[in-house]
Write a structure and sequence with these properties.
single chain; 333 residues; alpha/beta; Arc Repressor Mutant, subunit A; Rossmann fold; 2 domains; 7-stranded mixed beta sheet; 3-stranded antiparallel beta sheet; 11 helices; 33% helix
Length: 333
């Protein structure tokens, strides 16, 4: 309620709260039905009753000024500038694979954080799913000794191969379907993995298992998970999975990566359940880069123990569950 001392769109409110989207929508409905807020012109605001209630709770208007949390180190600015040029013509996201990429600056911030943690220099890096074109970002630093990109989308593989050939970048890129076990020649060969799994428990288990099978004893891994499609109950289950795989969380950077809406995740907005749910409450068109993920770093204690080793059946259930409100209705079909 402290965010609503001034009018805000229902999309703008999403990153200002900490619940997953189903809870967010339920709370909006509750506040509207009780007369604490009203929505008009696509924006929510406190009613007189809501203002009195907020005052009774001791809530003051949210200060929109934010501390600057992350800055790109100067040595990575040239990498960012070149990366922007090289990914400008990347393939558009495809709904079937639940694709969407993070912003250019956020991609390099990820890279800078991995460098800070000592996980790039001389490292063998495996990337499972690369809508973000992180293979290109890593290669531009000249720090890793090996970069392998695995993706089910032929367009992404061909694009990274093309850029690598044109710019003489050290990138390997291969077609790979995560429903299949990782090739024996790749198991236990990498120092670091990076992935952004689909946010169902089944999907997360598969993606993290494939990545765990790729890294060496005491290797490290990075992945993104949102609050919006992953409740705290789901986070708890993810932590249990990690422990079972001999992986311990060393860092979590909250809302570290922002997914731009324009020409990216907004392309499939008409097929997101959240779009209709918010429109029923009076929301307008998406006017905010609301979708953000937290960045996890994990480290293996001795040998990683993947929970899934064999072939799995990729079904819609791998892409969608009750919390998948920013996942296209046709994902996984």
């Amino acid at each position: 309620m402290r965010s609503l001392y001034k009018p805000r769109s229902l999309w703008e409110l999403i990153p200002l709260q900490d619940s997953h989207l189903s809870e967010y929508v339920a709370e909006l409905r509750n506040l509207i039905s009780q007369g604490y807020i009203r929505v008009s012109g696509g924006k929510a605001r406190l009613t007189a009753k809501g203002s009195r209630y907020a005052a009774e709770l001791g809530l003051k208007a949210l200060n929109d000024e934010k501390c600057v949390k992350y800055m790109i180190p100067s040595e990575f600015v040239p990498v960012l500038n070149e990366y922007k040029k090289l990914v400008k013509s990347r393939p558009n996201p495809v709904e079937k694979y639940d694709q969407g990429y993070i912003g250019d600056t956020d991609a390099i911030l990820r890279l800078a954080f991995m460098y800070e943690r000592g996980d790039l220099e001389g490292a063998s890096v495996l990337i499972l799913g690369d809508d973000d074109m992180m293979g290109i970002a890593f290669a531009l630093t000249n720090l890793p000794k090996r970069i392998l990109v695995l993706d089910i989308d032929k367009r992404i593989i061909e694009y990274e191969k093309k850029v690598a050939a044109e710019k003489d970048l050290r990138i390997e890129a291969k077609l790979y379907d995560a429903s299949q076990p990782l090739d024996k020649s790749l198991r236990g060969k990498f120092d670091v993995f990076l992935t952004d799994p689909v946010e169902t428990l089944e999907g997360i288990k598969v993606f993290l298992s494939r990545c765990a099978s790729a890294i060496k004893a005491n290797g490290a891994g990075y992945f993104g998970v949102t609050h919006l499609e992953a409740s705290l109950k789901k986070w708890l289950e993810i932590e249990k999975m990690l422990i079972s795989m001999n992986l311990v969380i060393t860092d979590i950077l909250r809302d570290f990566s922002i997914y731009p809406t324009k020409d990216n995740i907004g392309l499939a907005a008409h097929n997101y359940p959240i779009t209709n749910m918010l429109k029923e409450l009076g929301a307008g068109e998406i006017d905010s880069d609301f979708f953000r993920s937290s960045f996890f770093r994990v480290e293996a204690i001795d040998e990683p123990k993947p929970l899934i080793k064999g072939k799995v059946d990729i079904r819609e259930a791998m892409y969608k569950d009750d919390e998948s409100l920013v996942t296209s209705k046709i994902a996984g079909r």
